[in-house]
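Memo to structure team: turn this sequence into structure tokens by end of day. - J.P.
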Amino acid sequence: MLYHGHRKRVWVHDINQKRKDLGEYHRLCRELASHEIRFFTYFRTRSQDLFEELHELLIPKISKCTTNWRTPISTRERLVICLRYLGTGDSHQTIAFSFRVGRSTVGGIVKEVCTEIWNTLQPEYMPSPTEETWKQSEKGYRETWNFPNCVGSIDGKHVSIKCPKNSGSEYFCYKKFFSVVLLAIVDLCYKFTVIDVGSYGRHSDSGIFENSIFYRQYIHGKSLLPDKPLPGTEEPVPHVLIGDEGFALKTYLMRPFPRALATQDERKTNFNKRLCRARRVVENTFGILAQKWRIFLRPIDCDVDTTIDIIKAACCLHNYLRTKQGTAILTPESEDENVPMRALITHRPTNRRSTTAAFETREQFVSYFNQ
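Reply from structure team:
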């Protein structure tokens, strides 16, 4: 026991010493195992088997050695604390009171477990895309959304954070709050193909995309897939990503026409409808992510590095659960019944001038959709 002035400091607080008798993990969590629906609500996983499978994957990475000083928090309890934090968005202090552990202990557990979730799941559930990945994605967009030569839907969202120390206005976005940006490309099954996390909130989608590792590796001076004709045509057309007005028009990225132009031309209106319908896949994916992991519904009160780890872990868990629980696909007929949650804020439009080749590529799509 240590003393500092008149304030008594102890190794473990008296309340926390009763963790194994009264802590949330040792009482409520064990009861939830026999109640499937409440187990899902609490852990955000569909079944106990999924939780146990995830736990088994992480045991070697998050286990701690028992010492003469103390017995470590078990790997199960560490995973539960992390999932509860991601699933509720509660503060570290609230989680600490519930589980009867220290506030700093919760912060350390969240950061470590999120890092290991990414390191463990990313190679299998969000691997670097290959040519086969793009081919399968193109087939899905062509058959389901009738948008051929599309290999993915791209968008960027602001993730609200508490103001980082000594950051000035770097993270202050146009929506008047502090944020980091989650930029993502999504496949037909609402799974993340590629993510880029951590850019300053004040930057635009186009600027973030063109400075990303993905852009340098797959786009700059290259093509995702070889050009091929649209169905029923003969002239080769590039494979493209589809985005909103936050992106500049490129030969590899299609965006809708400005509304003022589209309302005056039925051909452009038809193109916008087709593109926006297919692009809803990425919007719905962000909505599913925020509904599952409610940490995104409020500002994340962590340092920037930990926030990035949290976002990456949530995206990896999203892909893991989508893969394990099935990947029901929203069809065009039912799209109006599924409005994504507006928890993550989109970027503002950009007015960057595009090349003639980009305009010509979009015109080829316009002609195809208006045959």
